[in-house]
Write a sequence for this structure.
């Protein structure tokens, strides 16, 4: 869902944070985001720490996207890959 602050994204059915729409790449890359203090945000980082690549979703301009998160190289940044539309 888009808001005035960016694009909300979801992991495992719960909100994780707000993506900066300007950094959502068309291919693999690093995106900026503002994390929510939520159980889903915690679960996302637990999965990354366990070596998993959690799949997240978001909606931009009415189009649903999914992507995998490989790492969090620094606070407020996620390395994503395999971005595709639903």
């Amino acid at each position: 869902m888009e808001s005035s602050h960016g694009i909300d994204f979801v992991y495992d059915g719960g909100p994780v944070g707000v993506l900066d729409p300007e950094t959502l790449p068309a291919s693999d890359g690093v995106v900026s985001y503002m994390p929510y203090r939520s159980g889903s945000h915690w679960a996302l980082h637990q999965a990354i720490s366990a070596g998993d690549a959690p799949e997240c979703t978001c909606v931009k301009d009415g189009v649903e996207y999914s992507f995998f998160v490989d790492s969090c190289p620094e606070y407020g940044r996620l390395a994503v890959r395999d971005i595709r539309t639903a």
